[in-house]
Design brief:
The complex is a heterodimer of chains A (262) and B (329). Chain A is mainly α. Chain A is built from eleven helices and no strands. The radius of gyration of chain A is 19 Å and the shape is elongated. The mean pLDDT of chain B is 90. Classes of the chains: A mainly alpha (262), B alpha/beta (329). Chain A binds chain B through residues 1, 6, 9-10, 13, 17, 20-21, 24-25, 89, 91-94, 96-103, 259-260, 262, and chain B through 57, 60-64, 82, 85-86, 88, 90-101, 105, 109-110, 112-115, 141, 154, 157, 161, 167.
């Protein structure tokens, strides 16, 4: 086996392991969907009239504006849990067994990213279906939906890798959840996920330009429109992809910190 | 590869862990050293916290020593951890199996991560499932396994890649006596089938005595003595003569009894451990009546008296200055 194919084989094997566990307990997918769908339907009704505020740039239908925001929220909150599988492996001897074998460290990280991405794609399709049933119509067509999925997957990769790194450093479930929530909620609200930042205080708009959640929301929302700004879409997706590469490298390096602590 | 260089060498391993805010670092290893000959089961015996697991973690490349060197199958563990990982099996103190996979899936995944092809991994998994009598449970989720079954699967996972060196960190801790006895038989059988070196840690004296061909007693991060179980016991020169006094521990009567017995001819290594008087004699049966007569003459009451062939417990007491049960609690 060559040095090049081994990490790929390991990634496939380890992703398969996570998907098997998911296949045995698919209720997890439904549980993860409840909150986003409640938000979608509740906020969709609650803030229906914000589109009438002068200066709101989202078009005529708040549900159409909100849907990509909810998709990214779901990707963010779901992937923040990715490190949980590491905590479980650490509480048993499974992680230590992997680390004393030739198992690829990068493969361990990327497998959790891919697994979370599969969940994100399935959940996004469900959310889009619910939004459609609730009356939302997207002009971007299949191409737009594919771009929305790509943006959601990149956001998932980023935060799954982040969650893995935190798990390896903190080694405790409670710490992982606390840190994830501490980061996820501000990122969610300092973006245009549920509200046009043009109508927020100026500082929110300024901060959101550096927020990867905002990058994903903008790319996804643009793609669902009838005449998307492709330069903006690919620019934001490029930023996300670059950050994903950096975070994956950092998470892989976190194995060293973990091994120093055992 | 010949078996001559497939052993384990540890030299002067030191390791400390952070002690927390304002607390000095905790010394886990304070110069552990030993050599395990290729193809044998080498036991590391000691109470919890003695440094056994830390030693295993360093030699299996999970952790690094601050100083000292380790060699596994002729490979330096600090310089070439990647090469070491290809030739070892590792069974941690905690279960190394994924509870949400079946036994077979755990084995096949372990083999494939070690670089085996799918076909190889499946046939090796079937062979090991058979050998450890896990056939019937092979396709059940591991979370439904009993403690004994799960531990056997752990050992099988460690054997998947036909390792030259297998690390077994407390393989029977937490098992009931029946499952422990079964595991011992399995490990004895394994040692004859697989040609490999095994580093076994245990805090059960009986386990070390039964399974290890050589062992090192570890106490406070150091190896206090090394040898075969027989050598260690023979090194004690004779039987243990143990007298439990009726007097309270630390009372004048207990001290007087100690002084009395210490002066008796034919007894050596007399030690007062609470209200228990321990000593050695070439022939325990010959010495005991003299001990009892002397105590009786001084009107010192005796609660019980025992003569025993030397055990590893005595070896432990001799080399660490405290009894094994006392160290464990």
């Amino acid at each position: 086996m060559t040095a090049f194919t081994q990490p790929l084989t390991h990634t496939a094997l380890l992703t398969g392991r996570q998907l098997r566990a998911f296949g045995r307990n698919p209720a997890y997918l439904v549980i993860n969907l409840i909150q986003p769908i409640i938000w979608l339907l509740l906020f969709g009704q609650l803030f229906k009239s914000v589109v009438d505020i002068p200066g709101f740039s989202g078009g005529g239908d708040y549900l159409v504006f909100l849907t990509p925001g909810i998709v990214m929220m779901m990707a963010l909150f779901g992937s923040a849990w990715a490190g949980t599988s590491y905590i479980q492996d650490m509480e048993r001897g499974v992680m230590d067994r992997f680390l004393t074998s030739p198992t690829s460290r990068g493969g361990l990280i990327v497998a959790t990213m891919l697994y979370q991405a599969v969940l994100t794609v399935l959940q996004t399709l469900v959310v889009l279906g619910v939004a459609w049933l609730a009356g939302a119509r997207f002009d971007g067509g299949v191409g737009g939906i594919l771009i929305l999925l790509l943006a959601a997957v990149l956001l998932t990769f980023l935060f799954a890798a982040f969650s893995d790194a935190i798990a390896l450093l903190a080694k405790q479930q409670t710490a992982l959840i606390a840190i994830s929530q501490l980061i996820s909620f501000p990122l969610m609200f300092l973006s245009s996920a549920i509200m046009d930042t043009k109508l927020s205080p100026a500082w929110v708009g300024n901060v959101s330009r550096f927020n990867p959640v905002e990058w994903a929301v903008v790319a996804g929302r643009q793609a669902l429109q009838s005449s998307p700004d492709w330069a903006s879409i690919w620019g934001h997706l490029g930023l996300l992809a670059g950050l994903c590469v950096i975070m994956t490298a950092l998470a892989t390096a976190a194995f060293r910190a973990y091994q120093r602590s055992v | 590869m010949t078996n001559t260089d497939a052993g384990i060498i540890a030299r002067d391993l030191h390791k400390t862990y952070p002690g927390g805010r304002g607390v000095p670092r905790v010394t886990a290893l304070d110069g552990v050293g030993f050599e395990a000959e290729a193809g044998t089961i080498f036991g590391l015996l000691g109470p919890n916290g003695a440094g056994k697991s830390t030693t295993v973690k360093i030699l299996s490349t999970l952790s690094r020593a601050e100083s000292g060197t380790g060699e596994v199958a002729g490979i330096d563990v600090a310089r070439h951890p990647d090469r070491v990982r290809r030739v070892i099996g590792f069974v941690a103190q905690k279960s190394v199996a994924d509870p949400m996979d079946t036994g077979r899936e755990n084995l096949v995944l372990a083999g494939r991560l070690q670089g085996m092809s799918g076909g190889d991994a499946r046939s090796r998994a079937a062979e090991l499932l058979g050998r450890f009598s896990l056939d019937a449970a092979a396709d059940r989720l591991v979370k439904t396994y009993s403690g004994g079954m799960a531990r056997k699967l752990d050992v099988a996972i460690g054997l998947m890649n036909r390792p030259q060196v297998l690390f077994l960190d407390e393989p029977t801790t937490g098992l009931d006596p029946e499952a422990r006895a079964e595991m011992w038989s399995e490990l004895e059988a394994m040692a004859t089938v697989e040609r490999m070196t095994v580093l076994l840690t245990t805090h059960y004296l009986e386990e070390a005595d039964r399974l290890a061909s050589r062992l090192a007693i570890v106490d406070h991060g150091r190896v206090v003595v090394t040898g075969t179980p027989e050598e260690l016991k023979d090194g004690l020169h004779g039987d243990a003569v143990i007298v439990e006094l009726a007097a309270e521990a630390g009372s004048p009567d207990a001290v007087e009894a100690f002084r009395l017995v210490e002066r008796l001819p034919g007894l050596s290594e007399v030690l007062l451990d609470g209200r228990v008087l321990r000593s050695r004699a070439a022939s325990g049966a010959g010495a005991l009546p003299h001990v009892l007569a002397a105590l009786d003459a001084a009107r010192l009451a005796v609660a019980s008296a025992t003569v025993a062939r030397p055990s590893l417990d005595d070896v432990y007491l001799r080399h660490t200055g405290h009894s094994y049960e006392g160290a464990r609690s």
